[in-house]
Amino acid sequence: xxQVHEAATHAFWLAGRQATGEATFDVSSPWNGRLVxxxxxxxxxxxxxxxxxxxAVRDAFAATPAHVRAAxxxxxxxxxxxRTEEIAQLISxxxxxxxxxxxxxxxxxxxxxxxxxxxxxxxxxGEAQRLDTDAGGAGRLALTRRFPKGVVLGIAPFNxxxxxxxxxxxxxxxxxxxxxLKPAPATPLSGLLLGELLAETxxxxxxxxVLPVPNDRMPALVQDERLPVISFTGSDKVGxxxxxxxxxxxxxxxxxxxxxxxxxxxxxxxxxxDWAANRIATFSNYQGGQSCISVQRVIADASLYDRLVPRxxxxxxxxxxxxxxxxxxxxxxxxxxxxxxRVESWVDEAAQAGAQVLTGGKRDGASYAPxxxxxxxxxxxxxxxxxFGPVLTVQKVNGEAEAFAAVNDSKYGLQAxxxxxxLQTAFRAHRALEVGGxxxxxxxxxxxxxxxxxxxxxxxxxxxxxxxxxxxxxYERVMILTGLAL
Length: 486
Ligand SMILES: NC(=O)C1=CN([C@@H]2O[C@H](COP(=O)(O)OP(=O)(O)OC[C@H]3O[C@@H](n4cnc5c(N)ncnc54)[C@H](OP(=O)(O)O)[C@@H]3O)[C@@H](O)[C@H]2O)C=CC1
Ligand SMILES: O=C(O)[C@H](O)COP(=O)(O)O
What we know:
Blueprint: E1 8-10, E2 12-14, E3 17-19, E4 23-28, E5 35-41, H1 44-62, H2 66-82, H3 84-95, H4 99-122, E6 127-130, E7 141-148, E8 152-155, H5 163-175, E9 179-182, H6 189-198, E10 208-210, H7 218-223, E11 229-233, H8 236-245, E12 250-254, E13 260-263, H9 270-285, E14 297-301, H10 302-317, H11 337-352, E15 356-359, E16 363-364, E17 367-368, E18 371-374, H12 381-384, E19 391-397, H13 399-408, E20 412-413, E21 415-419, H14 423-432, E22 437-440, E23 456-457, E24 460-461, H15 466-472, E25 474-481
Parallel strand pairs: 1-5, 8-9, 8-11, 9-10, 11-12, 13-14, 13-21, 14-19, 18-19, 21-22
Antiparallel strand pairs: 2-3, 4-5, 6-7, 7-25, 12-24, 15-18, 16-17, 20-23
Helix pairs in contact: 2-4, 2-5, 3-4, 4-5, 5-15, 9-10
NADPH dihydro-nicotinamide-adenine-dinucleotide phosphate binds near residues 159, 182, 222 and 255.
């Protein structure tokens, strides 16, 4: 069985090579407090060195042949496959994520790098447009290709310590944009391990760095004019603070959500309700609910509400909680005891305001029991904010229009799931729901890594998903050829 590098001091990656700074911080398991590793913190001079190197290499990197970038991406993908078990254990140890979900995350990162390799080979063939549609354009042709906007600053959160780093790095390499990645301080080890794999490639020095920069030194990096693109995943509070502080930069913000699963009247057979209940229970609790597309709100038609809710409660109670390293565990701890205390306070607030706790509602250290609430009053925090914990609310509605209005009654708009068999309803949902993605016949928590992913309203701006992030990191530059025999 491969071993996680216990309590080793992890160097960071400065312009493609390992380096250490003057200080370190500890990374501990949220499950048992065990020290998982120590991480070296870059000094100001080292951060400057990484930025200067990325800036200096930007033109050369953009001009790298596609096969070089694709080969590097393929290499990382293959090495992730080879080291899957070790990396899954690392994710599980630093994040508290159950090992089966951690293995799934590594599998997704394998795909992200593979998709990026494929896209790198296809990217920028150019698009020709004849301009002789008017007399003034006779003999003229526009050739449009995309070029990097510049060095990318990627900021990743703790909930998918590997794959959300992959979603920043892989598209940047695919387009030839240098990237400086800041992993989340709670879970930096997976992002640093990605550096090990990148260091095995022929990518030019300076084209990538992984720097665990403390937050108090982030504003300077965010303001740095040599980094014109910021790709951030995390809370709306921090994301918008960053964007507001640099209004002239290109910011992609992938922020929170309070994902809704709608169960409509036609989804009423016993088989339908069992499927919906099981999917809802699984995906309100996966990664302890710490995914911005986890199910937070169930919006069920009144005609089936009384048959659905007991099934959901039973399926939630069947979730296996406990040690994240155990293959059988479905739900582990949250990222920290503070996070679990916050979830506890929101559930307690809702209960005091009249909500019924149908199951769960208990905390043990950093672990919070999978929880279902009904009759949650509109004004409480749980009704308005992203809970980011293993908690779901159930709500009764009359008909499709009321259900869709309830989904849209949120400041967030990331993804929604609609359980229906009706094609017309599916199209109406697609048109009516103010979200970045509508999943028909399943929960909102489905993300394929190659599809466009991102939100509207407070859920963010811009799209990730390999090709879409590549578009985001680049801009169109047109070349007009003249005097041609078109
Ligand atoms: N959309 C999503 O997937 C996510 C949503 N969230 C939501 O956010 C809540 C809080 O989680 P949290 O991890 O604190 O999320 P944050 O938004 O605070 O953190 C996300 C990333 O941004 C970093 N960061 C924090 N402050 C700054 C800053 N001023 N400048 C640059 N980078 C900064 C964080 O580092 P550091 O950890 O040191 O603060 C981390 O790497 C969650 O409960 C959840 O509701 C969180 C994570 C992901
Ligand atoms: O499945 C995923 O990739 C995540 O849910 C996306 O990450 P997010 O929770 O940060 O959106």
